[in-house]
Amino acid sequence: MKRNRYITLPEDWDELTPEDWQELLKIRHIVASTDHQWTVDDVRIESARALLKDRGVRQQLNNPQWLKLVADLAQSLTWLWSEDGGMLSLVYRSTENKMPAVTIGRGKTAVKLRGPASHGYDLTFGEFRQALQHLKAYESPAGETEADMIEYRTKALCALAGLLYRPEATDGGRTERQPYDWDSLDDKMKRGQQMKPWQLWGIYAWFAYFCEALTTETFIIEGEEICFAPIFEKREGVAKTEGNSGTMAQICHTLAETHVFGTARDVDRTPLLTVMQKLLQDYYTLQKLKKVKK
């Protein structure tokens, strides 16, 4: 963490607070939905102001020290905002869920929806498999016209958010999501459609990075460091252009067919990370057998 005289400023994604993340998502939504020609410096300055405000630093436009603090923090936010070919991107690279819950509806009809636990610890294989389908639909929309593709992406995004964020339930005094179930596409869509646009994109950003992290990074499971990357290396039958997302889709399809954890319904209700550990164990067993044959 970078030390200031009075406050601690974030230097990477894991140091952002939930309040920080929501403010940044709102800034991104404004940038994406207005005709104003935003520069990367503009968004970094707006982000710096928001981060300082979240830490109790009052805006003082006539105070040179405050202006310098904003400028210095904005210059350090290269890890947060990037620019490529004139396109601005809010980058998110953390498996910690900075938006654990959202509220839809108002007044007596308000419902609090809870999202996945950080690092995907409570994701089931079935909901992950479905969420991956919605993710791919959002990133590769179908349609003959631009309007068709926008509508397709919107529906996919709402379905993704409505799948991952479900009404709260209490289990042994703990507040969790309602257990995963095969509710209809319409049910998921209705939940997603009631969310704010910046919330929808924030949910997408977390899940998209979680998928990437699952194929490249190390997870801490019961105190042990486990990396699933070997599972995704040089698997046959996957086009090179598909990358890790294509490999993940193939693994999901193959595992569902083999019923390694029982029936298809049993597989879908198994924790995702349990499935991944089984696949990793099988991978290392196969590698040992190959060495013995040589």
Rg (C-alpha, Å): 21 Å
Assembly type of the shown chains?
single chain
Strands side by side in the biggest sheet: 5-6-7-8
Q: Give the overall form.
A: globular
Strand percentage lies at 5-15%
What fraction, in percent, of the residue positions are helical?
40-55%
Structural class, from helix and strand content? alpha+beta
**SSE ordering:** EEHHHEEEEHHEEHHEEHHH
Arithmetic mean pLDDT: 85
The N- and C-terminal alpha carbons lie at a distance of 50 Å
How many β-strand stretches?
Answer: 10
Q: List low-pLDDT spans.
A: 235-245
Q: Total number of helical segments? A: 10
How can the largest sheet be summarized?
4 strands, antiparallel
Please explain how this structure is put together.
This protein has about 290 residues and is α+β, with helices and mostly antiparallel strands. It has helices at about 20-35, 40-55, 65-75, 125-140, 145-165, 185-195, 195-215, 245-260, 265-270, 270-294; strands at about 1-5, 10, 80-85, 85-90, 100-105, 110-115, 165-170, 175, 220, 225. It has a four-stranded antiparallel β-sheet. A two-stranded antiparallel sheet has the order 1-2. The longest helix has 22 residues, at about 270-294. The chain is globular. The protein starts with a strand and ends with a helix. About 30% of the residues are buried. Residues about 235-245 have low confidence and may be disordered.
Note the topology.
Elements: E1 2-3, E2 8-9, H1 18-33, H2 40-54, H3 64-75, E3 81-84, E4 87-90, E5 101-104, E6 111-114, H4 125-139, H5 146-164, E7 166-171, E8 174-177, H6 185-193, H7 197-216, E9 218-221, E10 224-227, H8 243-258, H9 264-268, H10 272-293
